[in-house]
Specification:
CATH class of the largest domain: Alpha Beta
Strand order of the largest sheet: 4-3-2-1-5-6
Largest sheet: 6 strands, mixed
Number of strands: 19
Radius of gyration: 23 Å
Number of helices: 11
CATH topology of the largest domain: Creatine Amidinohydrolase
Structural class: alpha+beta
Strand content: 15-25%
CATH architecture of the largest domain: Alpha-Beta Complex
Helix content: 25-40%
Order of helices and strands: HEHEEHEHHEHEHHHEEEEEEHHEEEEEEE
CATH superfamily of the largest domain: Creatinase/methionine aminopeptidase superfamily
Distance between the termini: 62 Å
Length: 376
């Protein structure tokens, strides 16, 4: 069933916290299928190649620590998830289930992550349990591990800082080399290459390089459009380091910025600073969003701020909490979030500026070192 004594202290502590949640929800154990949650609880680093293909799962209970995976990850299962019983389904999950059935025989209510389990896998699992004669009840249990991940420990924050430092170094190099005629796509590929060259695990998400009218789209995709002087160019990208993500947005203009750029940039920067210095533990995510949105609404540009102020970052680029004007949640010490107000004008362009902060009781801590902002 796995041995807790072999688990590194970090994972023992995380599993102990999860066990309290399981008891509170009257669950015998939790089936963990979300890649980030698997890694958070066990150290198993494999990712799922696609939605329909799983790299494995955990079954975690009071006396149960099982890592199930197929032979592709057998070596990693033994090396990375110390203290977990490695269940290798070498004859497929159905054909190998007898290896694990006796180890979960005493379980009655098994929680599963509805957001991290396909209907197909859920159906297969129900058939396996029925065929084996198990009376184990499958119970939806959303966001249990996510509620633990939302507050970062010092080691996690150090990894995020390192990922962000790599990202900022890449931005500085990209910014220095910008010339009219370079295409968004070519710059995007250069960002990916530099992240690897500077020590990142890889990109945190597909980079955004949006120029001219493309910058009017908050989530623009790379195109073959060449960048030009006098237009806004939004960069939004991040690196991973030790599994943890960073997220950075900067907006630049080649040559002398026109008056409209200067006006909107100054407004967005003011909104960013208002939120960055005002956000703290104890306020709601809605209140945090309003710190920036209020600045922009006062200038009568509220309708052009088309997304929330920011989001949590950790093992995933987007995770709790969401700094949204709807569905408010209470902000807590140790949360790491982005502060990224933006304005987007169709057929013209846009401005987005993004920093990352670790929320504190008093003043929150800025994690960025890059200060390459225009001062108009």
């Amino acid at each position: 069933m796995g041995s807790r004594t072999l688990l590194p202290v970090l994972y023992r502590n995380r599993l102990a916290r999860l066990q309290k949640l399981l008891k509170a929800h009257n669950l015998s154990a939790l089936l963990v299928t979300t890649p980030e949650n698997r890694r958070y609880l066990s150290g198993f680093r494999a990712v799922d190649p696609q939605l329909s293909e799983s790299s494995g799962f955990l079954i975690v209970g009071d006396q149960t620590t099982i890592l199930g995976t197929d032979p592709r990850y057998e070596i990693e299962a033994h090396e990375e998830a110390r203290g977990f019983f490695p269940f290798i389904y070498d004859r497929g999950l159905e054909g190998s289930w007898d290896k694990i059935a006796e180890k979960i025989n005493g379980l009655k209510r098994l929680g599963f992550e509805p957001g991290g389990l396909t209907c197909q896998f859920h159906g297969r699992l129900k058939k396996i349990l029925k065929k084996s004669g198990s009376r184990l009840e499958l119970v939806p249990a959303a966001d249990l591990v996510e509620s633990l991940r939302v507050r970062k420990d010092p080691g996690e924050i150090r990894s995020i800082r390192k990922a962000l430092a790599i990202t900022e170094e890449v931005f500085r190099e990209i910014n220095r080399s910008l010339k009219p005629g370079q295409t968004e796509r070519a710059i995007g590929w250069k960002i990916k290459t530099l992240i690897h060259q500077k020590g990142g695990d890889g990109i945190a998400f597909e980079p955004i390089v949006a120029s001219g009218p493309n910058a009017g789209r908050p989530h623009a995709e790379l195109t073959d459009r060449p960048i030009e002087k006098g237009e806004s160019i939004i960069f939004d990208f991040g690196a991973r380091w030790n599994g943890y993500c960073s997220d950075l947005s900067r907006t630049v203009c080649l040559g002398k910025p026109p008056d409209r750029f200067r006006e909107l940039y100054g407004l967005v920067r003011g909104a960013q600073l208002a939120a960055q210095t005002g956000i703290r533990a104890g306020m709601t995510s809605q209140e945090a969003d309003q710190l920036a949105r209020g600045v922009i609404e006062k200038a009568c540009y509220g309708r052009l701020f088309k997304h929330s102020l920011g989001h949590g970052v950790g093992l995933a680029t987007h995770e709790a909490p969401s700094l949204s004007p709807v569905r408010p949640v209470s902000l807590e010490t140790g949360m790491v979030v982005t502060i990224e107000p933006g304005l987007y004008i169709p057929d013209w362009g846009g401005i987005r500026l993004e920093n990352m902060v670790a929320i504190g009781k008093g003043r929150s801590e800025l994690l960025n070192t890059d200060q390459s902002f225009y001062e108009f």
